[in-house]
Amino acid sequence: MKEITIQAPATVANLVCGFDVLGMALEQPYDKMTVRLLDKPEVIITSLDGFPLPTDPALNTAGAPLLAMLEEPDLPGGPVGFEVLISKQIKPGSGIGSSAASAAGAVVAANHLLGNIFSKEDQVRFALFGEKVASGVKHADNIAPCIYGGITLIRSIFPLDIISIPAPPLHVTVVHPQIEVRTSDARQILRKEVLLKDAIRQWGNIGGLVAGFIKSDYELIGRSLEDVIIEPVRSMLIPGFDEVKQQCKEAGALGGGISGSGPSIFMLSKDAVTARRVEQVMKAIYERIGLAYHTYVTVVNQEGVKIVSSQ
Ligand code: HSE
Question: HSE-up of 257 (CA within 13 Å, CB side)?
Answer without folding.
Answer: 26
